[in-house]
Amino acid sequence: MQYETLGEARKRELLQYLAEYLIEESELHGRALPPVAAEVVRDGLTSAAAEKLWLAFRSLANVRPSWPAPAEFLAAQDELLQGLIAEAGIATLADTTASPVDPRLRLWRGDITTLAVDAIVNAANSGMTGCWAPLHYCIDNAIHTFAGVQLRAACAKAMAAQGHPEPTAQAKVTDGYNLPARRVIHTVGPIADGRPTDTHRRQLAECYRACLDAAAAAGLSSIAFCCISTGVFGFPQKEAASIAVASVRRWLNEHPDIPMTVVFNVFSETDESLYRPLLGL
């Protein structure tokens, strides 16, 4: 996949087409528009700033059901998303920092949607079809946004076949679509609400093991973990980091014949400060 940056004119052309398509699609199905998309309609697509068109497109994609999309739409969406990822800058394993005490483990602070590894881990909810809140700040929203509408469709198909919500501490593998990562491994972490129990701690450790099992079964050799359950699910960050590193090291020690490089991806300075001593950095 070739990631090439877009000129401003081309970016705006794609955004205008995509926003217009999704607005017309929503109106055709009698669905209310997210506020920012409604503003674009009121003010006119041709006069809207590119940033406003991006927010309209993203919010509409966030709430779009897993309907089939025409090839023209997918081509425009893919060109836009790959261009935005290229503009943000793609990171590789060479950009991550190896642990001096365990070279199998690495740390990287940045946007996981720009990381080119075999798989990134998505902290999903039990519905498994992404975050449906327009423009929400969670990692589930970000991954689905930059992977494209194909990811929700794939997840919806898997969930329809399963026939029930996803249990906590399992793992499902999908393609990465427009992401630099080849695969996305989705796992539902425990909802601790700031007061983790022993069951929550066990479930969080099982999330890491299930994702590693899934990666190994898929023949992958590198995986990047987000900080599972530490967002809206409320698992305290410090304890979650300790469980994450201990669980991963235990799995690696139990599977010495499976080559696996594990990146702990953090986004905030706080999380970075928690992982650095755990990794001997």
From TrEMBL:
Catalysis performed (reactions): 4-O-(ADP-D-ribosyl)-L-aspartyl-[protein] + H2O = L-aspartyl-[protein] + ADP-D-ribose + H(+)
Keyword hit for Metal-binding: yes
Source species, domain of life: Bacteria
PROSITE patterns reported in the protein's UniProt record: MACRO
Hydrolase recorded as keyword: yes
Any Pfam family the entry gives: Macro
Keywords for this protein: Glycosidase, Hydrolase, Metal-binding, Zinc
Required cofactor names: Zn(2+)
Gene Ontology MF term list: hydrolase activity, acting on glycosyl bonds; metal ion binding
Protein name per its UniProtKB record: Protein-ADP-ribose hydrolase
Organism, scientific name: Adlercreutzia equolifaciens subsp. celatus DSM 18785
Top-level taxonomy: Bacteria, Bacillati, Actinomycetota, Coriobacteriia, Eggerthellales
